Each structure stands twice: as C-alpha cells, then as structure tokens.
User: Which sequence fits this backbone?
C-alpha cells in the first residue's frame, strides 16, 4: 500500500520537478517582463477574476436547486457535470455554434450589435462554461450531505428563508464553497481548448496565459517555462488557501465569525444583563405571540414584555394530527405550566408530534393550539418561529461558525431586538444556565454537556410559551444528564413554562414530569399523571420502561379471574378487573393479551411451595446482575419467556443461586395486571362520516403559509 502511494505521489510530483529543472530561475524577472508575457498575465488575471465571480453568483443558486429533490433533478445533475467531462475543444465548438456570428443566439446578438465570439468576453464565457461545474458539483455534494438540524432550529427561532440561507446554510458549507471556488478559479486560469476554439488567440484580447505558453513553446522556450511557473505557483496558492482554517485565523485576529449577529456590546458590570434590558412595554391582552399589531412595537416589544420580571408565560398546548405517511394519528394536550413526558418506542411518532408543534410539519387533519391561539388549523397556519413554541432536539444544532453569545442572541435578533439588547438577553440566559463563561467560545469548541446548556439558553432567549424537548439529554453522559434535569426543572419553574419532554429514560419522567403520555404505533395508548403511570403501567412499553416483565399470550378466564395463556402449558392469573371498568375491561377471551409482573413481586424458591399464590412458574436461571444493593435474577420459563425477579444479595447467597439452576418463581395473582395487547393499525383510511377524521376534525384547504401549500410567503417557504 505504501509503495503504491509512493508511486502515485511520484506521478504527481516528478513532472513538476522536471519542469523546475529546466527553468532559468536567474532570468525569471526578465522573461516575465516582456510585453507579450505581461499582456497574457494581465489578461488571464482579469478574465479569471470575472469568470470566477460569475461562477460563484450563478453556480451557488444552481447548486442549491440541484441539492433539493424535484422531478428531473437527476437529469439536471448530469447536465451540470457534462462540461467537466467533454473535451475542452468540443466545449469551444459548442459555444461557437451557440454564440458565434452564425450561431443559435449569436445571429440575433450580432443584429443587436453585440458580438461575443473572438473577443475578451468570449474568453470569460469559455472559462465560465468549463469551470462553473467544478463549483456546482462540490457545493451541491456538500449541501446534499449536510446535517439540516441547525437550519430547522434556526427556523423555530424565527429566521426566514433568506436569513437561514445567509446566516446558517452558506456559512456551514463555506469550506465546500471555498473549495469549489478555488477549483473553478484554477480551472479558469488553466483553460486552453475552449478558449482557442471560441475566442482565438489575439495578443492583449484573447491570448491568455495558457495560450501564450503554448505559442511560446517552440519560438521562446525559456519564456514559456517562466510563464508555466507562474501558472503553477498561482494554482498552488489558490488551492492551498482552501486548506487553511480561516474561521480560526479570523477568530484569533478578532474578526467576527460569518453569520455573527454583531460585534460585542457593553453589557454592564461583570457582563451581566441589567433588568431594564429584559423588560418591555406591556403586551395587549389577547395578543400574545402575535406578529405585531399596529402600534404595539411588533415582535421585539412582545418579546420584551414576555421577559418582564415575574412573567409566567406557560399556556395549554394542544396537538392533534393525522399523518398517514408517517403512521401517526394522535392527540395530545399539555397542561399550562406543567411538564408532560411523551414516551414510546422508536418510530411511534414522538418526534413527529414535536415537529408539528414547532411548525416544521403540517398538522393535517388536526390542529395545534397554544392557549387561545390557533397555530395550525382550518384556514390558519402560523409559521415556525412565530408560534412561541421553542424546540430543543437530541442534536443541539449549535451554529458552529458562530460564538456561543451569537448563538443565543440569534433568536432575539430574528425577532427584531437590537444587537445590544439581544446580546444582553443572551448573556442573561447563559448566566441562568451557568454557561456565561462560554460566551466568547466558538460553537465547535463545546462539549456535549456545554452544547446542551447553550441550546437550552438559546431556546429560552426567545421567550416561548411552550418548550418542546425532543430527547435533548439522550446523547449525554450520566453527570451531564443529571445537570440538564436540574436546569430544565429550575428554568421551567422560574418561567412557568409548558414543557413537552420526549424521553426513553424513566429517571427523566420521575424527576421532571407532572403528566405522561405513551405513544405506540402513532397512537396514544396511555395517559395520566406521571406518578400513576410509573406505579401502575397499562401499556407494554411503559411496563418495560419501569422494569416490569411483559408476558404476551392469549387472553382467557373471566372478568373476576382474568388470565393469559403464554404457551408451554403455562397460564398466568391476574387481579380482577375493577368494578368501575366499563364492560369487560377490554379482556376478550381468545384475543391477544399480556401479563405485567413487577420484578419485586416475584419470590424465588428451590421447591414449589404450597399456599395461596396462584402463579407458580418453574424456570431456569439464565443471568444475574447487580441493581444497587439488590440483585436482578432472570429466569427462562415456558416457551422461552423471560421473567425477572428482584431479590437481596442475602437471598442469592441463601439459595446459592447460579446460572443454569432450576428455581420456582411465585407471584400472587393480585400483583399481576392482565391487559389486552393493542395490535398495530393501518393509519390510512382514517376518514369518518362527513369527511371527518378519527379525531373529529374536518378536512381543510391549504393555507397560503402552510408547508406544501399553494402559496408560501417568506417565512413559510422553507
């Protein structure tokens, strides 16, 4: 491998060394000062600069369009690459057939007195034709492979499409844009075939550096070699400049990062925000979160009012939607000022509901309501960033090209606050989460825990009425998760926020949640207070989350003596159905069901005991693990089912429990909950009578601002 790499390097380097050995280095200044050399060099610099500028101006939008998905985009991508693959002379002939005096467009241009062929303009056109594809291909590949979390977060913070493009998208793909520009510039500088075929070789008009080198090759070899050295040196500098970390170099020089919301402003003593900077005029009743009525100061005034001392801004958040393509048909209500945990297995629709709440997805067949304000519903759609709903996802979406301070000030600036007030607001939020010492760091310099805290501060800096947390702690280590729990609990209590918390961690539910909702297959299968769901789960997912054993099977027995047949001749008996339960409690014999057994309700014996417990199950130990001061013993029973029992270390020693040992597990029927299994349903065909869906909402026509609607304004286009 090393030998092959060395041969590859020699194939690139040796020709350059050979060229250098033939150059008359001592005579280089004199050779380059000849009139023909100076004319060729000056013409190449002018045409290359012009063609590169045109390539950037035209190629960047083209790359943005080709990076999207639309009918025929594959053909468009092939056409964009085609000039890179055709011989340059063929490119020149194609240009001549189009823009020449007798060409497709050239005849009309000549009639208007505009001649392009065999002019300096022809050189620029030829260079653009062969070089712009290098920029387009490089940038388009980067755009297609980029992570779009930061752009989605920017939208929820209030940025419109153009601000997202200028402040987030292009800065994040700036390295690819720089590489593509360098490749286009280098290709323009070295262009030969298309130029000589379309523009000719007239000194001072169309004879660029490559043409001069070719013509001088036989009549004046030293001059041609000198010009070749200049061309190679220029290419080396151009490509080499793209390998430098310009953001770090500019940062050390004190130049603001691309996309920065402004330079540092005075912030008062110790960099803390002063209370006067956080307050604003009182907000008119019923106008919470409105884009701004005449005379009310607009979003900036509303934001200041919501930040007034002691303001509690939590409002009830209702989300309902029917999205058959995502398998989601659910309705969720989060109480005002309460933390609601949203739980469920992967793919159950939790993130979809979060995106609907934030305005990133349309709540088709449903609605989104915050307090008394309809955010999404029949004839109404409030775009992301104007909803007073902040979103914090598993990926923090930190803008890596900005400082931490600019990250947090981004939302307030998008909502109309001045730079000084936005930065003071940002510092106050950073201080509230204990991250004000990170204010001047770049986004890419943060650890996972630091990024999570900054993302929380950035979300709260917009003064939301509801905060949607889509597993923001999932990627953090245990200490960082614990710190984030404390921060979320404290800030939610201080601000009186309505919070939806998506999580798979039972500790998050126990430590933070007031209420809990469980989703399975896109539908709500369980809801209630968090304490009630933790102590008595009624769904398979919740049971597994809290550690209960779930034994699926077929329902049998009666209302007073329900049971589940789990195979292998085993029957699990459970507690009677409560008297106040409607009908038969959903327990229909012969239908799928499950038995939920808490691990601390299982007793282990060497021999089958005699007594009142109805469930005596023989099994074999397949594993043991520590759980604090206790030991969890796993048994294999029946047709391969796993049963977990929590016992003390003393019990393990007394019974001499070890892997492979046969034991009897005893469970009182009163400790076992028998529940029906909910089969997965097809989300399609949800419509009921009169065009209503299963949630009772009527269909509606697209609102102009709705994602996918017929007409979208600046804020709803992306």
Assistant:
């Amino acid at each position: 491998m090393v030998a092959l790499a060395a041969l590859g390097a020699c194939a690139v380097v040796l020709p350059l060394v050979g060229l250098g050995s033939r150059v008359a280095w001592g005579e280089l200044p004199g050779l380059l000062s000849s009139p023909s050399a100076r004319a060729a060099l000056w013409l190449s610099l002018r045409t290359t600069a012009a063609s590169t500028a045109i390539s950037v101006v035209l190629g960047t939008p083209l790359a943005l369009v080709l990076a999207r998905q639309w009918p025929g985009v594959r053909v468009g991508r092939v056409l964009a690459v085609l000039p890179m693959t055709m011989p340059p002379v063929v490119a020149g002939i194609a240009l001549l057939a189009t823009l020449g005096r007798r060409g497709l467009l050239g005849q009309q241009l000549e009639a208007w007195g505009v001649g392009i062929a065999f002019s300096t303009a022809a050189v620029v056109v030829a260079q653009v034709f062969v070089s712009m594809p290098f920029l387009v291909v490089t940038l388009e590949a980067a755009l297609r492979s980029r992570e779009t979390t930061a752009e989605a977060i920017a939208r929820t913070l209030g940025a419109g499409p153009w601000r997202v493009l200028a402040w987030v998208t292009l800065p994040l793909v700036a390295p690819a844009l720089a590489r593509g520009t360098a490749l286009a510039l280098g290709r323009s500088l070295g262009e030969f075939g298309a130029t000589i075929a379309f523009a000719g070789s007239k000194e001072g008009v169309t004879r660029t550096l490559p043409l001069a080198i070719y013509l001088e090759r036989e009549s004046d070899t030293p001059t041609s070699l000198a010009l070749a050295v200049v061309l190679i040196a220029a290419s080396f500098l151009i490509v080499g400049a793209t390998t430098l970390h310009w953001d770090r170099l500019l940062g050390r020089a004190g130049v603001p990062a691309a996309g920065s919301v402004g330079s540092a402003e005075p912030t008062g003593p110790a960099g803390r925000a002063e209370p006067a900077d956080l307050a604003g005029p009182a907000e008119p009743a019923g106008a919470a979160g409105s884009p701004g009525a005449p005379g009310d100061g607009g979003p900036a005034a509303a934001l200041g009012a919501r930040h007034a001392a002691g303001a509690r801004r939590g409002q009830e958040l209702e989300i309902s939607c029917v999205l058959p393509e995502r398998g989601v048909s659910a309705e969720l209500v989060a109480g005002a000022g309460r933390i609601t945990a949203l739980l469920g297995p992967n793919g159950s629709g939790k993130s979809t509901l979060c995106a609907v709440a934030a305005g990133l997805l349309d709540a088709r067949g449903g609605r989104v309501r915050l307090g008394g304000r309809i955010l999404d519903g029949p004839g109404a759609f409030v775009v992301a960033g104007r909803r007073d709903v902040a979103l914090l996802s598993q990926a923090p979406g930190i803008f890596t090209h900005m400082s931490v301070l600019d990250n947090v000030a981004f939302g307030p600036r998008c909502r109309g606050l001045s730079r000084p007030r936005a930065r003071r607001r940002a510092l106050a939020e950073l201080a509230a989460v204990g991250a004000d010492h990170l204010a001047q760091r770049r986004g890419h310099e943060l650890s996972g825990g630091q990024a999570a805290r900054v993302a929380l501060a950035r979300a709260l800096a917009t003064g939301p009425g509801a905060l949607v947390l889509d597993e923001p702690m999932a990627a953090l280590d245990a200490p960082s998760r614990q710190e984030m729990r404390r921060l979320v609990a404290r800030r939610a209590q201080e601000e009186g926020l309505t919070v939806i918390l998506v999580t798979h961690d039972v500790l998050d539910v126990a430590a933070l949640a007031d209420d809990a909702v469980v989703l399975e297959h896109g539908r709500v299968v369980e809801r209630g207070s968090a304490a009630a769901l933790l102590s008595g789960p009624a769904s398979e997912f919740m049971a597994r989350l809290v550690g209960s054993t779930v034994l699926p099977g077929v329902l049998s027995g009666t209302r007073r003596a329900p049971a589940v047949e789990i195979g292998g001749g085993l029957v699990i008996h459970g507690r009677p159905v409560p008297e106040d339960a409607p009908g038969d409690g959903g327990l229909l014999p012969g239908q799928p069901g499950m038995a939920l057994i808490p691990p601390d309700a299982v007793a282990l014996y060497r021999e089958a005991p005699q007594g009142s417990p109805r469930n005596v199950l023989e099994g074999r130990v397949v594993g043991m693990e520590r759980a604090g001061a206790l030991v969890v013993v796993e048994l294999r029973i029946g047709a391969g089912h796993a049963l977990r029992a929590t016992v003390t270390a003393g019990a393990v020693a007394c019974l001499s429990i070890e892997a492979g040992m046969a034991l009897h597990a005893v469970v009182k029927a009163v400790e076992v909950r028998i529940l029906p299994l909910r089969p997965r349903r097809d989300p399609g065909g949800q419509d009921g009578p009169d065009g209503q869906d299963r949630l009772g909402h009527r269909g509606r026509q697209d609102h102009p601002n709705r994602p996918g609607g017929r007409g979208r304004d600046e804020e709803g286009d992306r």
In short: The domain at 18-245 is CATH 1.10.3720.10 (MetI-like fold). The longest strand covers residues 615-627. Residues 35-66 form the longest helix (32 residues). The two ends are 47 Å apart (CA to CA).
